[in-house]
Amino acid sequence: MNEERRVGVDIGGTFTDIVTIHDGEVSVSKTPSTPTDPDEGVINGLGKVSERDDFALSSIDFLAHGTTVATNAVLEGEWADTALVTTEGFRDVLEIGRQARPDIYDFQVEKPTPVVERDRRYEVRERLDERGNVLVELDEDGVRDLAAELVEADVDSVAISLLYAFEDDTHEKRVRDILVEEGLDATYSLSSSVLPEIREYERTLTTALNGSLKPVMDRYIGRLESRVEEKGVGAELKIMQSNGGIITADIARERPVNTLLSGPAGGVQGATYVSGLSGESNLITMDMGGTSCDVSLVEDGTPLVSTDTDIGDYPVSVPTIDIHTVGAGGGSIAWIDAGGALRVGPKSAGADPGPICYGRGGERPTITDANLLLGRIDPGAFLSGELDVELADVRRLFAENIADPLDMSVTEAAQGVLDVANANMARALRVVSVERGYDPREFGLVAFGGAGPLHACKLAEELDIPKVIVPRTAGVLSALGLLISDILYDYSTSRVRPWDAVAPEDLQAQFDEFAAEGNDRLAAERLAAEAMQYERTVDLRYAGQAFELSVPVPDGDLTDSAMETIAERFHERHRQRYGHAYPEEPIELVTIRLRARGVVETPDLRPAETGGSVESAVIDTREVVYDGTPTETPIYDRSALPVGASFDGPAVVGGVESTVVIHPDQRVSVDDFGSLHVEVEP
């Protein structure tokens, strides 16, 4: 594999990141994103890196992509004209939703716009009971009448979500077949395929979202595939899923709802892998890019996965790396609210025009501008000198918009912007740790993204996190994550039963069925049998609860003893998560899950020996402001720091795609893989 040329491309709100691995060497690059035409940024980036590194695009053997196309479509409501077909009486499930409200005391709160409006929601006569037994046969003549109506409506996509279809999908498949027979030319999404699980609202919503995104993702992937083929790339395009695994472009077209956190998931995977190389397995990851900051938690080397994730106003219940996002990125705009308080974000200057310091016409102060004013970023080396930075313009506009209205100096205003932004990010870090029963003092903070290493050391200090890890490719870690992520396929089905009524052989049979499907998928990707792994879990709850916990299932054929072990694990997890458990209470099975994993060979990320010393890596000194105090600070060239080096803060370490700010009283060491380890004083 070392001779392969593997390329990962991740599109962010501000920059498109490209990582290339060839003959064990890692090459990184950034190019401005093109929000109105995302594939243009991909093509620009590929052209830039191939010209710089002198290789033909036809020599690319593997091409993986992290995309925000599906996410942006949901956030902006720009999806396809979709029809929803439900069981008679359930037309308004999307409208009714759940009791949960963003503010229970706000009588004026507005519900989110339904993914499918009421005039595009249709009913068919049929009914199953909770065990999948037929109570009312499917009215096929009614479905044929519906087909004529849908043909007249000229919809692009059809989502089919019938009651209890996860117990028996026969009716859903028959509805689809009849619509096809009657000439309805559209894409189809079935709940029994997209999300065969309980909870009518979430299942219907996720299916409707998948249906509304299929034409959008199909057009984007088709356009991108055509353009890379025109450039001579012969490698099959792969797409990152929200669960942290790679799938083929064809599967992504079929299941776009599984790509809603594609880019952030790649970052968590990259952070987990790189930190694991140096023996760090309990991590809080922090990906701060141009528009947002994504935080997640990794326990024992495994990112936490959730099936309860909000994308904008919509709860999406597909397996997703548990990521919490706040609107704090390098491009987040600083502003003063009606009460005269300083606020930062969530609006972002994005890639165009970007922060003031990009020199592209931006006039509103951002976090990046504040870092520049405080000496943390070198204007002469900003993004490898590709941007024309005018420090005087930054200072003037910062004064006009923030400092003068608040009667502060520009330096005080810039420090205030960072303090507010850090407070927002600290809250996000607490959400994924303290609020979920984890002590931050037992974790390391992995900082990446273009802006993450600028803020991480201060955040770790505030949260008593003992160590910050900054990978060598921190600024493009999401793109690197695409190249080390395994191929993953998730399978699930709800089977709500008392746990003591579940026979081990029946549970084993369902796992065997899932494993056979996963084996077929992985074999189609030409993976050897030894590279295939299968991870089994069940979602359990105490009888009467409305929520459940995912519990790992022991390897091997299931026996009565294994079932007891699973129950014990559930009690332990419940106690860890909520602080209490009830071993005498009856348990209920909710959902059966299997993950089919195709393990990829990972590259050697050891950097080439620099042959230099810590002293020779110091390229400059300049005044940097820490907590309002100007301090003369050595500036290090990260590429010149030798493996095994160590030095004390304060320091600024500049790299090609990110800058690390080390505060006073912190100590830095460089591990064998070029990652910086910053020891933070409690």
TrEMBL record:
Coiled coil: none annotated. Residues 503-678 form the Acetophenone carboxylase-like C-terminal domain. Residues 203-490 form the Hydantoinase A/oxoprolinase domain. It holds the Pfam family Hydant_A_N. InterPro entries: ACX-like_C (IPR049517), ATPase_NBD (IPR043129), Hydant_A_N (IPR008040), Hydantoinase_A (IPR002821), Oxoprolinase-like (IPR045079). Residues 6-182 form the Hydantoinase/oxoprolinase N-terminal domain. This is Hydantoinase/oxoprolinase family protein.
